[in-house]
Give the backbone structure.
Amino acid sequence: MGLILIRKGFASAVQDLGRLGYQKFGMIVGGVMDPPSAKLANWLVGNDESDAVIEYSFLGPSILFPEDALFAITGAVCHPSLDGQKIGTGKPYLAREGQILTIGGLVSGSRGYLAVAGGVNTPLWFGSRSTFEKAGQGGFMGRFLKEQDRIPVGEPSKRAKHVMASLAEKKSVIRWFAATQRTYRDVQPIRVIPDTLWPRFSETSRQVFLNTDYQITASSDRMGYRLEGAGLDLDRPIELFSEAVTNGSIQVPRDGQPIILMTDHQSTGGYPRIAQVASVDVPLLSQLPPNSKLRFQLISNKEAEKQFVRQVKNLELLHNIITMQLDRIAR
Amino acid sequence: MLRIEPFGDQAVRVIFGDQIAPEIQMKIKRFTEQFDLAPFAGFIEYVPSYTNIVFFYNPIEVLRGGRKEITAQQQVINYLANMAKRVSGSVNHKMERRTVHIPVCYGGDFGPDLDEVAELRGLSVREVIDMHSAPDYLVYMLGFAPGFPFLGGLSEQLATPRRATPRLKIAAGSVGIAGKQTGAYPLDSPGGWQIIGRTPLPLFMPESDPPTLLAAGDLVKFDPISRQEYMGIKEGQPWV
């Protein structure tokens, strides 16, 4: 089994849910930017949610299937086609040997996911298949994908095989589709938790941080989003030592323009942090393209945890429904 | 003395002090050693740094095993607070530290800034090498890149500001000085440190577990070597 890349798209790479447990050695966690969408793609093709997928940004790849394969596309909205025929997203499709999938440009949202039954099967490196590009490790040969790459795919699950057999026989297309609910607003509200250094920022800074818009600049990537907006400063400069940071940490360097740390952030950082994006909103944030505007809303740690737990429960429900639907197709 | 505070909604920070000091690093090391013996359900990983340890957890898993009426974060804070009591009550045994010898070929094209550092500090090149290779440096933490050590113990006399213009590429293994810090680059990377030498040893070892030569709490001793020795080690001669 395998996939052959015909067009590489933009920043296409093999990713899974990240490499956990090695940050104390200076390694990054990495992985998909939008975990709920990646999990959804995997569920749709009968994979484990932690199986590796192909993630792309802004422009999707084109892929040749050298053998029959069950695949699904989730995440950013796009208009894919299979051998020139328009297809939908959020549902499993059977690609026949020799067919070409064209994903094309992303029209809303900025990260898309392609899952294939069996999962992308590049070697595990420290328990993960995520691409750690700076170290040249993990994923597909430690790098972003390019044309002519032949990406290995694992053995589809029993459930996926049944779905494939059934779709091949009925020659029918699935009517339903599944999506993680996303609303992108002109000015996207993003919930944040105050950092312990919050009181050390000037009164004016705290005011403007919550009451003015910030724009994601073009010099943003998988490591971090550089924002542009009202400058922020501390009441008095403080000496900070490097310490652990995490996804959604909002750092304020000396120029006063905040940087939100994203999936490929370094394990440690030494800039003062004003706030922390609530985990529940990190996937949404990761879908916002450059030039998007944000408005931060303060919530408590307790509320942030509650919202995250609710998001996970909703996803579990969706997972159960998908599994039931797949079993119905296979019957 | 010890503070525990939330860090976002899926991490907790345990703070041991507010300055860079070997005693604080020792407390951090002791705490992580104790924690390794009894991690809580839902624990993902911890990251120690100069003055604190951040514990990352999965709130869903914490709630699954624990009480539902209080938040996962509060349960983690309680767990770590209890552990802190036990650790501070335990016998203050002497800390065993591993010393890692790192051979360094100083100067030449391996250490293009060695002459400048000597000149800026009013020292001879020999003195810079002697002073840099004398101490047992303490690895406070790893960060920035896989295997990059934040070392303490550089002689004040060697403290040199970063280069005005950073280099686009510093070769893996380069040993440098930046202000009061000294360290070695595990990967080719851009950087503004004053580069005084290079080690043939890999600091990042993608095939080994753990993937790094050093760990927080280790001691590092830089041993000056000749260019010939450098080449020998690079070609596989053992280094003890």
Summary: The interface with chain B takes residues 20-27, 125-126, 134-135, 137, 193, 195-196, 241-244, 246, 248-249, 266-268, 276-279, 301-302, 304-306, 308-309, 312 of chain A (CB under 8 Å). The mean pLDDT of chain A is 95. Residues 301-330 of chain A form the longest helix (30 residues). Chain A has five helices and 20 strands.
